């Protein structure tokens, strides 16, 4: 599965494709301004994309099929946004993006990871649980469109899981 895509750092010129994926995946998507701020103006932010190289008649076209924005703030790795194109889900792309974030976090001395996820987002909650996260609390009415609780999850200590 991992051979059909590669994980690379995002660049500001990718914002249009990232924004399209963001809008396709979330009911309350980040705006272009937020994405640009994360890509260029936040010293703690890291942004990865999963790229698939599709062969056309004349050349190979790279396509963004997933992305992950995360922060490394001192000892904490904070998963911010993770999205995978609907037609590409369940192929290990989300797992690979988060695993790369773990690797980068550990390189920069992060010791724990945290995130919040919509209570109704069962696929994401299953993924994070399989990766080693545990639910630590809920934030009532945290999300809008629709209004919904956030489930807070933590991995402490931060470690890279070997299996899917």
List strands and helices in order, with pairings.
Layout: E1 6-9, H1 15-25, H2 32-40, E2 45-55, E3 60-73, E4 76-84, H3 93-107, E5 112-118, H4 122-131, E6 134-143, E7 148-155
Parallel strand pairs: 4-5
Antiparallel strand pairs: 1-2, 2-3, 3-4, 5-7, 6-7
Q: Tell me, what is the CATH class of the domain at 2-111?
A: Alpha Beta
Question: Rounded to an integer, what's the Rg over CA atoms?
Answer: 16 Å
Strand arrangement across the biggest beta sheet: 1-2-3-4-5-7-6
SSE pattern, N- to C-terminal: EHHEEEHEHEE
- Uncertain stretches of 5 or more adjacent residues: none
Named CATH topology of the domain at 2-111: Aminopeptidase
State the shape.
globular
CATH superfamily of the domain at 2-111: Gcn5-related N-acetyltransferase (GNAT)
Name the CATH architecture of the domain at 2-111.
3-Layer(aba) Sandwich
Average pLDDT, rounded to a whole number, is 93
Kindly state the number of beta strands.
7
Overall helicity: 25-40%
């Amino acid at each position: 599965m991992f051979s059909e895509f590669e994980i690379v750092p995002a660049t500001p010129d990718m914002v249009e494709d990232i924004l399209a994926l963001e809008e396709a995946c979330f009911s309350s998507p980040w705006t272009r301004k937020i994405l640009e701020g994360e890509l260029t103006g936040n010293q703690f932010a890291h942004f990865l994309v999963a790229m698939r190289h599709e062969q056309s008649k004349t050349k190979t076209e790279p396509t963004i099929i997933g992305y992950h924005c995360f922060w490394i703030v001192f000892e904490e790795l904070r998963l911010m946004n993770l999205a995978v194109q609907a037609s590409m889900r369940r192929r290990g792309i989300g797992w690979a993006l988060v695993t790369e974030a773990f690797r980068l976090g550990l390189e920069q001395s992060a010791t724990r990871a945290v995130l919040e996820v919509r209570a109704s987002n069962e696929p994401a909650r299953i993924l994070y649980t399989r990766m080693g996260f545990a639910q630590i609390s809920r934030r009532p009415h945290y999300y809008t469109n629709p209004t919904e609780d956030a489930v807070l999850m933590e991995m402490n200590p931060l470690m890279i899981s070997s299996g899917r």
